[in-house]
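Late entry, evening session. Most of the bench is empty. Finally got around to the prediction I had been postponing all week. Sequence below, unchanged from the version circulated by S.P.
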Amino acid sequence: MLDSDVIIAYGSETGNCEAIAEKLCLELEKCSFKVSLQTLNSIAKINNLSEIKYLIIVCSTCGQGDPPKGADKFVSFIKKKKEAISIKFTLLGLGDSNYSKFMFIPRLIYDNLIRLDCKLFFNKREADEAYGLE
C-alpha cells in the first residue's frame, strides 16, 4: 500500500519541470497532504498502480519529440500497458510552441492514461515558454 495521498511525478530535461514539481510538493505539504515526489520512471516500477490515490504529472518534451530525463521508461510502459489502472490524475505540460513537437510527450502521456481508464481530477494544463511559463 502506498503511504502518500498524492504522488507528484516529473520528467525534466532542463530542470523546469522538476522545480515546479518541488514547489507543488511544498504547497501540498503545507495543506497537510502526504506527498511523494518522484520521477515518472519510478511510477512504472509500482506493482499496483491503482493504489495511487492522486497523481500529478509535470512533464516536457525534448529534442524531436523525445521524453525528458526520468520519463523514458514511463512513456514506454504506459504505451504498452493494456489493462485499466483507474488512477485520478492531472497533468501540466511544459513546452515551447516554436518547436514542431510541441507538447508531444505530455499529450502522449495524457492520451494513454485516458485510454487506460484514468480520470482527471483537475483539467490538464499546458504552459508555453514562447509566452512565458508563469
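Two things to note before I forget:
Strands lie at 6-11, 35-39, 54-60, 88-95, 119-120, 125-128.
Residues 16-30 form the longest helix (15 residues).
Will write this up properly tomorrow.
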